[in-house]
Amino acid sequence: MKSLFNRSHIQQQPPSRWSFLLGLLAMAFALMALLVFVFPSMKYQYEEKMGGLIWSLLPEQDREERITIVAIDETSLADIGPWPWPRETMAELSNKLAAYGSSLQLFDVVFPESKVGDDVLASALARNNGVLAQVPIFDPQSSLRSGQLNGDVATTRCQFPIPNANSYLGNTPTLAQTRVGHITPIVDNDGMIRKQPPLVCIEGRVYPSLALQGLLSSLASDHPTVSVRKQQGQMSSKWHVAIDSYFGLSIPIDEQGNMRLSYRQSPDSFQVVSAANVFNGSAPAALLENTWVLIGATAFGLGDVVPTPHSGMTPGIELQARFLSNLLDGRTPYTPAYADYLLWFEGLFFAGLLLLLARTQAKFSAYALPIATLALPISAWALHSYLLSFDIWLGWFNVALFSVLSGALFVLADHQLLRHQHLRVFSHLSSYLPKPVAQGLLHTRPSSAIEAKRHDLVLMCADLRNFSAYEESRPPEEAAALLHYFFTEASGVIESFGGQVEEYKGDSILASWHTAQFNDASNRAIDAANALQDRMASILPERPPKGLEPLALGIGIERGATLVGSIGPAHRRHHTLLGDTVTIVLRIQELTQDLAQPILVGECSARDLHGDSLESQGSFLLDGLTTPHVLFAPKSHRIDPLVDREHNRVVPLRQSHS
Fold first, then answer.
1. How far, in Å, CA of 88 to CA of 149, rounded?
2. Is this prediction's pTM over 0.85?
């Protein structure tokens, strides 16, 4: 029955431990959900910044040969004149690019005001396959409506999730007849551009972006079919923009109608030609012939710069080049429909791994859990970054935050458990050893060498006389109860006078007072001995068993040099006191019965006491020793009142029994 009970008890322990760990996981999930709900901007910024970090760490270096950026840079402004340039100058730039053989000209420039030369520029753009820019404005506080919009997709109607713009900046009516695409990106709170809507709805009409208009312009059809559809498959995005006549091209978009910009290409992969070199004819023909050119400002003074993962000041024209390159390659990062399921599976896998580590051996989990707390968020980011190489934006922040919180709670719980166990072990250790010795063991490694120090101590040995005969005649439980009560009461009395119990040996106690700690160590020992005799009078049985002598307490006290420490092999140490003083105090205690004195004091300790408080018992040759010792007995072991010197308080006394 007992073994069966033990087995059932052991089997019931793991569920409670599992319940505790599962509760920590639930707490971590609740904290994660709370933080994401309360600080959504923090979640978005960290996920976006760190989510695209792999692009800046390991960018692709392949040169983009289909697109060339014609930069209106500082050199161009110095050679041609300050911005804005006259319309004739812009028309000349368009004609020179056409002469170099460019197949499509995309101007990242808006001309909202009518000026001389508009007709010349309009003619050049129509002849050279040019596309202008316009700017939808999503700010609901804005009422700007300047210029004229153009380039709407007649086959597409305004619908969810195409975003709506309230105002706009268009081109002058003379230029508005040219094909036009918008250049309005989505600017995050940190100023970085990560998304752009490929389609924008303004006053019931749908207008494409500059990059998308460039694709539509390259088609043979005058009215290409563009539609926004909801995807059904788990591998695709929830929404996409389909261009049916462009080889089934599909642009994945999110529920806000935005496509994500990829920064996988290094800025050096884009070919850049100064507009000044185009004007003076020194531009490399290979960079312009049969290519799509993007014309825009890169000069710092023109202010068209934004922060990107690659640089804090990136020209806006480079972003348009990236959008166009993404569309040409069909490599637009997107979040697939299965992303939520994969993130849940990833979170459950991490939770299971943490549970497994938490259930391993304490020594292993003490190292494994902190490592996992750091490694799992990195793993979530690494998986996200790996899938990003396939243009899949999975997300990582929620799983990483959950794993950090779970790991931190597990580590904290493990630390608290270990702390509780250490405190419990220390409590047990200090119950078997003196507390200072137990504290010293916490900071040392086990050793098989002798570890001891010499101290000047006042020792007291208190022994229950006739206990062996009493134990022989009584049940062991009764003898153990009496001995336990004796040790408990004696320890309390000794410690109340500043003493320290060093050993329990059989039916005796060995205690000590450090003279370096107490100037009146011998007085304390005498006071404790008298108080102990008084206590034992009420504890020891008044009537001994028939044929036995009554139990009594014999106490010996002496002062001297003592070696205090531990001996024995590393796996089984023994705390002990060694030296002549120990032997002497034991022999003095043995003489208490022969001399019929409850308390005897050695001559070294007697020197510290008042002479009128002691009575000499003569000189004795102690058993096993060669030098005679003079012993003394207190005139009375009563102390009225009993003073607790360590705590500076009075202890109530019973009547003493001499």
1. 22
2. no
